[in-house]
Design goal:
Blueprint (H helix, E strand, L loop, with lengths): L10 H13 L18 E5 L2 E5 L5 E7 L1 E6 L2 E6 L6 E5 L5 E7 L1 E2 L7 E5 L6 E5 L5 E7 L1 E6 L2 E7 L4 E6 L5 E7 L1 E2 L7 E6 L6 E7 L5 E7 L1 E2 L7 E5 L6 E5 L5 E7 L1 E6 L2 E6 L2 E5 L5 E7 L1 E2 L7 E5 L2 E5 L5 E8 L13 E5 L2 E5 L5 E6 L1
Antiparallel strand pairs: 1-2, 2-3, 4-5, 5-6, 6-7, 8-9, 9-10, 10-11, 12-13, 13-14, 14-15, 16-17, 17-18, 18-19, 20-21, 21-22, 22-23, 24-25, 25-26, 26-27, 28-29, 29-30, 30-31, 32-33, 33-34
């Protein structure tokens, strides 16, 4: 998976990528009150229109948008119009437009700024706006990721090439575009890939600091961001290679032995051995033996896990505390945040609390 954006230029790929980012935002689930003291709202779809409920399941903003995404930093991206004629804007928690619809695509706000795409599907470019809708970074990038730790990944396409770099919050290039792939900064470092002459166009992965200096030399066949002091890295190709974990010096902290590995969350990391998934601790010891067909990171003490065609939720002992009953999610939006999780049943989405009780019954 690429770090900051899609590898293809078609409009649908970009839209799906942004939808995953928007829906995966922790603010999708939220808490009773945000940091401004406003109620946290949860996006729902009813009969083809999108609105927002509160944590009790009460409708706060009636379904009226053709698409809506999670609130982030007090604003939510919403879409008006059908595909091809649609435009995105941002609303506040009263439902009033803070930024009128005028963007082809709109990402969630992060650190006070949001990536937006202006222009048509073929020639449109990404820039950044602040919460008043003022353009802070002119639309000039072929893709742009959200800000993290003061920097945002931006991509510029050439003739058969793509190069990733980073800008600061004034829109100035802080790290020149030069990488074939890049992830957001996390814990002071960002995973980046060097150029390659191979068919993929992506070379080895290493990690840079915020000056653009290579802190961990490119040597891995894939790499993920740091979390809780460790980062998953792939040694060898995707077919025969193994995943392990490095520390911030680049030293191998957990030897490559897994067929896949995810970031650490709440002290545990999801790993795959063969065709089953389980969890390890930071010493590399198995805490929950591989037994699930698919699983997700822990959040608030619980993690979604799939056996066969359906999912439930386990605790940190591996016990299934919310029974297997939910469809496999798409996009991968799972996990509890401030007591609620979004789940899918029969192609419809709902919200449950940590007892498994529905706060919002699955709707279209």
């Amino acid at each position: 998976m690429n770090g900051c954006g899609p590898g293809r230029s078609d409009e649908m790929t970009v839209r799906i990528t942004l939808a995953v980012l928007l829906l995966a935002s922790p603010m999708l689930f939220g808490c009773t009150r945000d940091q401004w003291g406003q109620p946290v709202l949860f996006v729902v779809e009813v009969n083809g229109k999108w609105g927002f409920i509160d944590k009790t399941g009460t409708m706060v903003l009636n379904p009226q948008f053709d698409m809506a995404f999670a609130f982030s930093e007090g604003l939510a991206a919403v879409m008006i119009g059908d595909f091809g004629t649609d435009m995105f804007g941002y609303i506040d928690k009263t439902g009033k437009y803070a930024i009128n619809p005028r963007f082809v695509l709109a990402a969630p706000f992060s650190e006070g700024l949001a990536a937006v795409r202006m222009g048509d599907a073929e020639t449109g470019k990404f820039g950044f706006v602040d919460k008043t809708g003022t353009i802070v970074a002119d639309p000039q990038f072929d893709f742009a990721a959200s800000f993290s730790e003061g920097l945002a990944g931006v991509m510029i396409r050439g003739s058969g090439t793509r190069e990733w770099g980073f800008i600061d919050k004034t829109g100035v290039i802080a790290i020149d575009p030069q990488f074939s792939d890049a992830f957001a900064f996390s814990e002071g470092l960002a995973a980046v890939a060097t150029e390659s002459q191979g068919s993929s166009g992506i070379g080895k992965y290493g990690y840079i600091d915020k000056t653009g200096t290579m802190a961990i030399n490119p040597q891995f066949d894939s790499a993920e961001p740091f979390s809780e002091g460790l980062a998953p890295v792939l040694v060898g190709d995707f077919m025969t290679g193994k995943w392990g974990y490095i520390d911030k010096t680049g030293a191998m902290a957990i030897s490559p032995q897994f067929d896949h590995a995810e970031h650490f969350s709440q002290g545990l990391a999801l790993v795959r051995i063969g065709d089953k998934e389980g969890y390890i601790d930071k010493t590399g010891e198995q805490v929950i033996e591989p037994q699930f067909d698919e699983a997700w990171p822990f959040s608030e003490g619980l993690a979604a896990a799939r056996i066969g065609d359906h999912c439930g939720f386990i605790d940190k002992t591996g016990a299934m505390v919310i029974s297997i009953q939910f469809d496999e999610p798409f996009p991968d939006v799972v996990g509890f945040h401030e007591g609620l999780a979004r789940v899918r049943v029969g192609g419809k989405w709902g919200y449950i609390d940590m007892t498994g009780r529905y706060v919002w019954e699955p709707s279209s």
